[in-house]
């Protein structure tokens, strides 16, 4: 209560201090005029003389001095308020970590700006109810190098780690047998919405999941192309903002349809921005930057797409970026005078906070959760019209709004998958061997079998450190001209394959198949990398760059390249799960 009264008084003083100063100056001028009349100095050969001016300036100087002192008091009060809001959020056991490592004083007014999109909070409330009932929960953080803790000390130094520590301290949980448990998390380095599109099968396989935090603001700022579009998008399809919005919408629609087993809560987290875009040359070009719609900041479109799907948005960028540069570019990169400067916020010239910055990101997530908990526990929570409920969360018949960017065919292909018409071959189903065995026109070193302990995970597998294994299948193009590969990626013993289409059954790229695959090698077919940086094996889906027109017949080739000595594990294999054409 003391802090709240102090803050109210501060605001009241700010509103009236300008009026008080004006009144003092006017009274000073009247007093000086009166002195001039009495002393006889008001009339002189030069007309109105300096006594009035000098007296007024003197009073003004005193007033300005008083104002500076009061501003210093405000700054001291601001520090008290900042500490109090951190104390409200962080349990006492963790408080030293936050008060000692936060990069600058964090005020309540800063944190209040961290919710640019409130969204539909039905799913978030369901998650908070799990926390309040002491249920242990699972979170996945889908993000890029910021979520991976690049230049901050790695994953264990990134914001998910202190956030989970806070969550376990603030909301202790119990296992089903009554023993003490822990909230758990995993990170998925999607490196942008396009990469998440490709790696989506790994998310779809998760059986239990309560909260998804999707952080792709930085990575979606870079052009990615739009290879998966099924309709011609025109010139807008060449725009990087449109491309990332298209892939981001696919991700949001897929997440909304996910059941693990309940509909998970979903949060868009805008954790950072590209600092060099606001810097001096050679890091940026002011003339070309002025012609960029959002200066390579994906947040406006992230907020737009999230708002249309009523996804809550938590953000550090929404207030940190304007706060850093509100006095110009010199100020934005002034490490000495500006505590919010972009140079100190980043550990490099790009977009990666140092370790202390990740503590702030954790605090923002914690604040936003607690603020929503307050709403949930108040009467405001009941002031909801029937039409406001989350129709996507219905278990039996979820309803998604019409897409913003996806055509009906694209939505059906990548999200709904209803009555999906496609050709090609599925090697995972032992009952479908007859559908593809006659399509194999050449095979040297690839075997079809189940390589797991339970003998139920089938696929075409090539294995050998020397590489060179080759298989060819006959393919016919379908309506959209796309050829899609699904294969296994894992943390060790998996290598790199090359794939291409041509008119021959023979291996026209045997030299490349017998050579360690190097990125950018001239003339080399498309690479498909079986490495995955998690200690699991999951499927990955990727398009072949060169497609097939409807009715066109080609031979599909794939070969395993020799093992790279830098790879984990002594083996070198590749497991192909399917080749689809649509």
Write structural notes for this entry:
The structure is a single chain. With 582 residues, the protein is an alpha+beta fold. 36% of the residues lie in helices and 17% in strands. The protein has 17 helices and 18 strands. It has helices at 2-39, 51-89, 95-101, 108-112, 122-132, 160-170, 193-204, 240-257, 286-289, 299-308, 317-324, 329-332, 342-345, 355-376, 408-416, 433-436, 510-513, and strands at residues 138-143, 173-174, 180-181, 184-189, 211-215, 265-270, 313-315, 423-426, 440-444, 446-450, 458-463, 470-476, 483-489, 496-502, 526-529, 538-543, 553-560, 573-581. Strands 8, 10, 11, 13, 16 and 18 form a six-stranded antiparallel beta sheet that branches. β2 and β3 (180-181) form a beta hairpin. The termini are far apart. 36% of the residues are buried. Residues 1-82 have low confidence and may be disordered.
């Amino acid at each position: 209560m003391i802090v709240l009264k102090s803050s109210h008084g501060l605001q009241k003083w700010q509103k009236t201090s300008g009026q008080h100063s004006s009144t003092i100056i006017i009274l000073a001028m009247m007093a000086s005029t009166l002195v001039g009349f009495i002393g006889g100095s008001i009339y002189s050969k030069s007309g109105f003389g300096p006594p009035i001016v000098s007296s007024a300036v003197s009073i003004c100087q005193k007033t300005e001095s008083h104002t500076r002192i009061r501003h210093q008091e405000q700054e001291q009060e601001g520090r008290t308020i900042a500490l109090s809001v951190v104390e409200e959020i962080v349990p006492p056991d963790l408080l030293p970590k936050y008060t000692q490592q936060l990069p600058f004083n964090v005020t309540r007014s800063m944190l209040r700006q961290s919710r640019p999109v409130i969204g539909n909070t039905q799913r978030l409330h369901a998650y908070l109810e799990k926390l309040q009932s002491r249920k242990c929960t699972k979170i996945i953080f889908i993000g890029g190098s910021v979520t991976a803790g690049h230049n901050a000390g790695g994953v264990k130094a990134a914001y998910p780690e202190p956030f989970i520590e806070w969550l376990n301290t603030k909301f202790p949980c119990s296992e089903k047998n009554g023993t003490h448990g822990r909230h758990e998390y995993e990170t998925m380095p999607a490196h942008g919405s396009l990469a998440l599109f490709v790696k989506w099968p790994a998310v779809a396989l998760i059986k239990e999941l309560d909260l998804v935090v999707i952080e792709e603001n930085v990575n979606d700022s870079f052009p990615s192309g739009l290879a998966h579009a099924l309709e011609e998008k025109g010139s807008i399809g060449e725009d990087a903002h449109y491309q990332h919005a298209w892939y981001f919408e696919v991700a949001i629609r897929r997440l909304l349809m996910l059941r693990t087993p309940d509909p998970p809560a979903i949060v868009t987290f805008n954790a950072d921005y590209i600092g060099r875009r606001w810097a001096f040359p050679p890091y940026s070009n002011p003339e070309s930057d002025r012609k960029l719609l959002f200066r390579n900041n994906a947040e406006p479109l992230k907020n737009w797409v999230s708002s249309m799907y009523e996804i809550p948005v938590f953000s550090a960028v929404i207030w940190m970026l304007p706060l850093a540069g509100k006095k110009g570019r010199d100020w934005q990169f002034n490490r000495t005078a500006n505590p919010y400067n972009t140079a100190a916020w980043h550990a490099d010239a790009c977009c990666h906070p140092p370790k202390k910055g990740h503590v702030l990101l954790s605090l923002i997530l914690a604040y936003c959760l607690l603020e929503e908990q307050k709403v949930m526990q108040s009467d405001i929570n009941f002031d909801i019209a029937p039409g406001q409920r989350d129709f996507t969360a219905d278990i039996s018949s979820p309803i998604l709004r019409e897409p913003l960017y996806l055509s009906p065919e694209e939505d059906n292909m990548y999200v709904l998958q209803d009555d999906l018409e496609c050709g090609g071959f599925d090697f995972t189903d032992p009952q479908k061997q007859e559908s593809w065995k006659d399509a194999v026109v050449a095979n040297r070193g690839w075997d079809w079998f189940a390589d797991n302990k339970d003998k139920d995970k089938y696929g075409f597998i090539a294995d050998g450190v020397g590489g060179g294994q080759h298989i060819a299948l006959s393919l016919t193009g379908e309506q959209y001209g796309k050829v899609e590969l699904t294969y296994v990626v894992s943390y060790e013993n998996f290598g790199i394959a090359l794939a291409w289409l041509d008119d021959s059954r023979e291996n026209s790229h045997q030299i490349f198949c017998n050579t360690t695959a190097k990125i950018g090698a001239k003339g080399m077919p498309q690479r498909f990398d079986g490495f995955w940086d998690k200690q699991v094996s999951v499927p990955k889906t990727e398009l072949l760059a060169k497609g097939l027109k409807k009715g066109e017949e080609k031979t599909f080739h794939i070969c395993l390249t020799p093992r790279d000595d830098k790879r984990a594990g002594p083996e070198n294999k590749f497991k192909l799960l399917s080749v689809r054409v649509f």
